Amino acid sequence: MYSRAELARLIEPRSIAVVGASPRAGAFGARVLENLAHYSGAVYPVNERYERIGPLACHASLKELPQCPDCVVVAVPREGVEPVLEEAAALGVGGAVVFSSGFAEVRAREWHQAQERIARLARRSRMRVLGPNCMGFVNNALRAGLTFIPDYVRMPHRLGPVGIVSQSGALGYAVAQAAERGAGFSHFFSTGNSADIDVADLISYLADAPECRAIALIVEGIRDAACLLEAGARAWRAGKPVVVYKIATGEAGAAAALSHTGLNAGSQAANRALFERCGFVMVDELEALFEFAQFLARAEAPQAAGVAVVSSSGGAGIMAADMAERYGVPMPQPLPHTLAALQAVVPEFGAARNPCDPTGQVLNNPVSFMQCCTALLEDDQYGALVIPLGAALAGAGAERVAQIRELSAQYRKPIAVVWLSEWLQGPGAAEYEGEPRATLFRSMDRCFAAIAAWQARAHRSAPDAPVLRRRD
Q1: Which pLDDT does position 247 carry in this prediction?
Q2: CATH number of the domain at 155-298, out of 3.40.50.261, 3.60.21.10, 3.40.50.1820, 3.40.50.300?
């Protein structure tokens, strides 16, 4: 597999050339230039038809640039891809991104052969190639959007601990749009047909990237199981959990995958067995992917198996107990000194137990919520605290955010906030998303499933890695 150093000129470029740059609104070359507006490195538009594009001088070819760029974005039709890559390789470019479709995902043998030539060129020249048939990537630390998807440049800039790797560009970017609701990500990669770089290489890269603390992975098919096992071992050694969502699990989906990225989806049983060997956390729905990854990125190793719940809604507390039982997450009752602390605060018509229900009286006495949470977080039986939130309320929302921020900063135990209101972007939602330690879930089921996965991961052995030979 490729190391971070081997991918650095591609993913951490100091200079970028955009071949096929254009002033035409909506053109891929125009969108890339827009998405590089906040990037501080050198940007070189390349297109012989123009002398300037906006404030930037435009060049007729790569060889006319004032320096050899670290990375080249290839935004030309497929017939022009190979000549551009050959020129880039001859100049010593470090990496290239190829958007063009119509290679190994189509039936015509000539385009399968063209993709094979691209792969050989990448190996021979050691110029790393992402794609073809991909949407590019985003390095959020550099604010570099080497992608044709519109509006990255206008997306709120939130650098978060999750790196996103997806064979499906649209699904991966849909996950990255969590930034619009207050969350953040470190990188987004779309691998497309994976002629050279595949998901294993990018997991390997993120394992060494300090901005990333967990990896969210969307896969259709596995090109090389041995490489994926090695990637899993590298991520495990680096303490970076990998959460994987596998699409193309049925016959129709597998057939669609072949025409999408040209990858064989494989059997679901074999894939699950491979992911287990890799040490990955598996989820069965896209909605769980980012939530799990955020939680695992923020949670340290469990200090205890028990989980405590504080909810001013008795019904939400019952929901939490149901989900804890479903996923085998223990919810022990408080120790005597904790019970006494709860009884001193909770009204007699509430529940001084686990789950703890201080009732709606927390609106009249907000301090009681903090006192209940503090008592349970200081109980050595509990390794995590779950706080279900019912109705989203403007006044109480801001105060509750401040309280949870204080708790998450004070205690080294993960706090999971479960947003139950159908007012999905109600008061406080964005603030919870941006908390560095607390994690917002929009499903009680997913919250306890993530906690169970976190606890299980803490008790499993490290994955074995095969001995690999270099590709170059």
Answers
A1: 93
A2: 3.40.50.261
